[in-house]
Amino acid sequence: MATTKIRKTPGIQNGAACIGRTQIPVWELIALSLQGCSDSVLLSDYPQLTRDDLKAARNYYAQNPDEIDAVIAAEQPG
Description:
It is built from four helices and two strands, in the order ββαααα. The chain is mainly alpha-helical and 78 residues long. A hairpin with an 8-residue loop joins strand 1 (6-8) and strand 2.
């Protein structure tokens, strides 16, 4: 089983933390989870992700809540 890496790449998703081999930002997965989206729905909507990727996103959020919460707040409409 490969270890999921979270990467920040300038010019990709505005430098936001993403699941390493994708351009899917951690904040997006966390925001959807906080809105009640289940793992099974996330995995269906993002078929390139694995359960390990979702776990890595949650671990990153646990270690960097202020960063992720700030991006989520900035992305909210209004």
